[in-house]
Amino acid sequence: MPEPRNPSSKPLRVVVLASGRGSNFAALVEAQRRGELPIDVVALLSDRTTAHALELARAADIEAIALKPRDYSNREDFDHAIFDRVAQLTPDLIVLAGFMRIIDPAVVEQWVGRMINIHPSLLPKYPGLRTHARAIEAGDVEHGSSVHFVTSELDGGPVIAHVALPIARDDTPESLAARLLPLEHRLLVATTKLIAVGEIALDNDRVVRHGQPLAAPLRLDDNGHLG
Ligand code: GRF
Fold first, then answer.
1. Catalytic positions
2. Which of 35, 108, 170, 187 has the highest local Cβ count within 10 Å?
3. pTM of the model
C-alpha cells in the first residue's frame, strides 16, 4: 500500500478538495506560509464553481480548479474526471476539507493511505450530515472533530486524530459549529504535519505512528500538540 511518507526533505505536495467556505484549506495554506508545515499546497479543486474556497486559492496564488458535476453523465464519470485532474498534479497527499461528495469506491481505492478527510464529529460517532445537531439531540457532553484516512466506507476510514470540546447546555448546532471550527483548523494542521514529517502513515488498514499501531486516535491538546 502506498504511504504518504516523505523521507526526503522536500515538502509534501498537497492537493485540497473543498465544496464551500474553505476555511480548513486556508488554515493549511497559512500554516505553510508561516513556515510551520513542511507542505506545498499545489492546488484547490472544487465541485462547485461558486465555492468561496476557489476565491481563497486564487487570492493565495494557488491553482484553483472547478469541475461541474452536471457536465458529466453520472457520478462515477465526474469522480474519475476530478481525480484525473488531481493525479496530474502528482500529490503526495490529498486533503478532503469540506468536500461534500461521496466518492466512487473505485477512485478512493487508488488513493488509500494518501487521502485524508476532516469530519465534524468524534468518529465513529455521527458519520454523515447534521453532526452537531445529532450530538446535541443525543445529550452528549462532548463533541469534536476527526481527521481520518479515507476508505470507501463513508466517514469510516481509520481515525488518526480527534479534537474534543464540551457541549454547553444552551448550545445550538450553530454555536457548537462556531466553537469547533478553529479547533478543526488546528487539528487538520497538526495531523497534516505528522504525515508530512513521516511520523504517521496507514499500514494495512491501521494508523501507525513511528511504525507502531495507534491504540486509540491521537487527541489534540490545548497547546495544539497531538498526543
Ligand atoms: C468543516 O466543518 C469540516 O469538518 C467539514 O466541512 C466543514 C468545512 O469547512 N467536513 P470549511 O469549508 O473548511 O470552512
1. 119
2. 187
3. 0.95
What local confidence, expressed as pLDDT, does residue 8 receive?
Answer: 54
Task: Please state the φ and ψ torsions of residue 174, each to the nearest 5 degrees.
Answer: -70, -45
Q: Is the CB of 38 under 6 A from ligand 1?
A: no
Give yes or no for residue 98 CB within 6 A of ligand 1: yes
Using alpha carbons only, what angle is made at residue 111 by residues 105 and 115, rounded to the nearest 5 degrees?
Answer: 105
Residues 189-200: pLDDT tens digits? 999 999 999 999
Answer yes or no: is the C-beta of 145 below 6 A from any ligand 1 atom: yes
CA 5 to CA 17: how far, in whole Å?
A: 20
Q: What is the Cα–Cα distance from 155 to 80, expressed in whole angstroms?
A: 20
Grid coordinates given for 85: 485532474
Tens digits of residue pLDDT in 50-60? 999 999 999 99
